[in-house]
Amino acid sequence: MVFKRLLAAFGVGGLSIDTVVETPHTRPGSVLEGRVELSGGEGEAEIAEIVLALVVGVEDGDEHEGVEFARVPVASGIRLAAGETLSVPFTFGIPWQTPVTEAGGGSLPGVMVGLRTEVVVDGASDKGDLDRLHVHPLPVQERVLEALARLGFGFKNTGVETGYLSGTAQEYPFFQEFEFHPSERYAHDVSEVEIALVPDPEGVSAVVEFDRRGGMFSEDGEVYSGFRVGHAEADRLDWAGTLDSWIGETLRRHRELFGGPYPGEGEQYYEEEERGGMLGAVGGVAAGVVGGLAAGYVVSEIVDGVGEDPDPDEEDQPAEEEDAEEEDGESDEE
Fold this sequence. Notes:
Blueprint: H1 4-9, E1 16-21, E2 25-26, E3 31-39, E4 45-60, E5 63-80, E6 85-93, E7 102-103, E8 106-107, E9 113-121, E10 124-135, H2 139-150, E11 154-162, E12 174-181, E13 190-199, E14 203-212, E15 221-230, H3 239-258, E16 289-292, H4 301-304, H5 312-333
């Protein structure tokens, strides 16, 4: 991005600034590296400050706006002689909750993240155009999205919305949501599935909303639930099988509590052998279920079981307690 016109407006004719990144491809939690190149103009120039900012396009109702959510100062107090050139290196830590713009080998529609250079000269500041960044998903995010595709959920859309999600360590007043058409197995019960995958340094918190179809004895409504996965578990789970079981159990528990139609028994629409590239226009990062996250009114036990093996010691414990009670009873009789 070049600011020749901008800086000429400040009375610094001919001075230009160009921001160059080593690669525009990045991931949440990684570091973006680059340099700011300055080229002096007709006379000496003083630049008070140069700042880089990350900007994301956010939906707020029917409006779309660019929201700045991270910034890094690059340099300050620069005096540049006529015709002098200067290259200033920078590193920019990409926040963990930066929205994903790429998946499945292509760009996602409706999501834009860009890097903007702001220059301050003589107390006045101006912001240049956005340099688009390509933010790829973390392994856990990728595995979840690919598993949904394997199960037959059709990608519909993704966007960044304002608001906060309960039960997550959300840093910013917005979150990214992925929308899917239901698979054939759940189409009679669910009209749409929306999932937010909120990462942090330890893992990813998933918040899932099922838009439930109404039946003869029930109304339309939403079912909210979720789960928590550690980055180290990204490649340790059978994601399609695990998510299919979790979705089925979540909806079953909700029907038991609040009523609604029961789906018929159907086959699982996925192939365990396939590993990647299933989304086409959607894609990911790293995972491993480490606990329960409950949002809304779905019972938290549904979440706690995802990806965890039962403890054989716990299964034997009730029998051991019964034996202890019988021995106490015999002692009392004596």
